[in-house]
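Service request form, structural biology core

Requester: graduate student, group of Dr. S.
Request type: structure prediction, single chain
Budget code: on file
Notes: please return the result as structure tokens.

Sequence provided:
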Amino acid sequence: MEQVIRQIRELESVNSLSKHEQIVQGILNAINEKVITKGEMLPSVNKMIQELGFARETIVKAYKELIHSGIIESKNRLGYFVATEDIQQELKVALVIYAFDTFQETFYESFRNGLGDNIQLDIFFHHNNYNTFDNIINNIRGKYGMYVIAPIPNAGTPGLLRLLPVNRVLLVDRYIRTKEKYSYIVQEFRESSYDAFCKLKDKIKKFEQFVFFFRTDNSAEPIEILESFNDFVRDHKVNAVIRDNYEPGSLEKGKVYFTIHNLELWEMLKDTKSKGFVLGRDVGFISHNDDIIKEIIFDGVTTFSTDFSLMGRKAADFIVKKEKIREVLPTVLIERNSL
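Core staff response, request fulfilled:
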């Protein structure tokens, strides 16, 4: 019983939760973490009053809500008992990601479908803004049974993550080094990018220059890809240049372009058409993060990418099965007509 009280007390710092919501979520968390199991007795109302200092009406309201949901049951004159450990219908999951780009939508659809119908999923976007990320984490902590988070590479991120229970957090997409042993399903950027460039070396060297658009002031862009690009052009003596962004209309023959951003890719493809260039001969394109549009448009754009649908399915398995996972998904090079 003391452990159940402790689970409820952990939520006291969450100002947005009412006292009866603290009790409900605390008990759900205790069942979810197998602190208390089916058939075991919960603290009595008097015990809760004594330990928490909450009003009797508040505690009774929380117990009635859990009884109505079928999570606990009241046995006459004996007390309240856990009725089931299957609390999926009550499980609330917070998904915190960058934005709804095409590849992240692929992840979301796969993740949502894998959860089934009995789990509430709320989605939050931090847009790679640390202040927004900070506000989201502080607003959602204590309100959800599980947290799936695409973290921002920032010195403050490990401290923010510590506000959440380690065993209820899954990090996705980007790996963040922390002292805590969080579960994660992420992609790797340094070795996989270098390997992709090397496999494309002969096609890249057909062009006069290799142009990479990379915003050094934007942590949404993995610095490891920039490092791999620099290593590749040095090791293989490739004429290359790094630019902050693509200026519409500036597309030139004899160059192969690499961008992480879809909007830049669409602008370059638009200019390819308007200038009458032949893709793969006059200009070349390489893109990061594959999706169905890049498979179809202009007979296909060469990409290297992890499988975001697989990432979504594995993330859903983590929520449903509650089994720890630490996995780096492979990156796959897909060669198409653009190079």
